[in-house]
Amino acid sequence: MPALWIAHVSVTDAEAYGKYAELAGPAIAAHGGEFIARGGRYVQLEGRDRPRNVVARFASVEAAVECYNSDAYQAALEHARGASERDLMVVEITE
């Protein structure tokens, strides 16, 4: 079943986070991830507001988790640590 990788982010260091984004995109694409929302308009209805929201679609939960654990994504993530506050989850799509 396909899955969504959903990230809610508050950026605290734009330069370092920019390097993360530069490296993360190719890492996600290499694992079959396709961005369907990336920092666009949103309405916060409940919970903690984080101004950057990203959604990518993967073939499965396993594919998304494999991407997260990959060397390429972990290298990108080093730039996000300390440069952002993030919540990240993977949710299976039940069609």
TrEMBL record:
Gene3D superfamilies in UniProt: 3.30.70.100
Domain DUF1330: 2-92
Highest rank taxon of the organism: Bacteria
Protein name: DUF1330 domain-containing protein
Native organism: Sagittula stellata (strain ATCC 700073 / DSM 11524 / E-37)
Organism lineage string: Bacteria, Pseudomonadati, Pseudomonadota, Alphaproteobacteria, Rhodobacterales
